[in-house]
Amino acid sequence: MMYTMNWNSPLCRKLYQKTKNKCAFLYKEIGKADTPGGYIDDKFIVMDPSNPQDIETWREIVNSAYSDASYTLDEAYALLTNHPAVYPSETAFYLLDGKKAATISYGPIRSAGDTGGFFRIAVLPEHQKKGIGTELLRYAEAQLLSKDISRVEETIKLKRIGSLIMHFKAGYQPETSYAVRANKPKSFGKKAAAMVGYELLIKPITMSIYREFYLNKRT
Ligand SMILES: CC(C)(COP(=O)(O)OP(=O)(O)OC[C@H]1O[C@@H](n2cnc3c(N)ncnc32)[C@H](O)[C@@H]1OP(=O)(O)O)[C@@H](O)C(=O)NCCC(=O)NCCS
After folding, report:
1. What is the CA radius of gyration of the chain?
2. pLDDT (tens digit, 9 = 90+) per residue, 193-217?
3. Rounded to 5 degrees, what are φ and ψ at 22?
């Protein structure tokens, strides 16, 4: 099915405003040979969640990258050790000039262990748009692949436009349908309503952003 929604149209902008807390579903078959790029292993260090200094550093990076995050130490620890959707997770820091400047968490998702997921991908604001986020994705994909996980599903708020663009450029695509989705967040409420909402509203907007910021730029 083709979507012809114009991202700049008043209708699309209105829909986007109304759905800014809703999430796009993306996926990538990371086992495929055309997965682009690599990463520099030396730049990554795995977090020790039992080390309070690591949790504090994670909090500083995530709270400053996300305009809507303000984790306490306890909340950060709970999320990092017992994430509701991704289990068992591991978290890595990205080192820039020896300092921790970015982070990503990854692991098999609870509802389908052969599918992977990420959470709290964050780059310190002063270091964004330099390719670090993309390198985080490549690193985390490689960790999942090493655990025989060849598909990743991402749930991204539509309002996080920078993250959507980064994912599209890294080879992620809008999910083909809600039904094939392994990871259906509980917060989406009743299944039928979530499916209709996704197919009628969220997916067309996601496709519109995909076309605007990714497909059109390739031709
Ligand atoms: C989203 C985030 C992780 C991206 O990290 P980053 O290091 O800036 O990403 P990259 O530099 O690898 O960007 C990859 C591509 O996306 C583009 N991009 C990234 N953010 C963008 C934005 N806000 N607007 C437009 N394009 C953007 C980059 O220009 C780059 O494109 P290019 O290769 O053509 O130059 C970072 O902006 C961030 O921490 N944001 C706040 C937290 C967040 O939203 N996390 C993700 C939640 S799912």
Report:
1. 17
2. 677 778 888 898 899 889 887 766 5
3. -85, 160
Whose tokens are 């500083």? That residue is: 60
Say if 112 falls within a structural domain.
yes
Whether residue 109 sits in one domain with residue 35: yes
Cα 162 to averaged position of ligand 1 atoms, centre (Å): 5
Count of domains for the chain: 2
Asked whether 120 and 86 are in contact (CB, 8 A), the reply is no
Residue 160 lies in a domain: no
Which residue segment(s) compose the domain that 203 sits in?
1-27+176-219
Q: What is the CATH number of the domain that holds 75?
A: 3.40.630.30
Q: Which of 166, 169, 172, 206 to mutate to test the pocket of ligand 1 (most atoms within 8 A of CB)?
A: 166
- Please give the model's pTM, rounded to 2 decimal places: 0.89
Pocket of ligand 1 (CB under 6 A): 65-66, 121-123, 128-134, 156, 160-163, 165-166, 169
Which of 21, 70, 163, 210 has most ligand 1 atoms within 8 Å of CB, for mutation?
163
The label of the residue with tokens 């149209």 reads 9
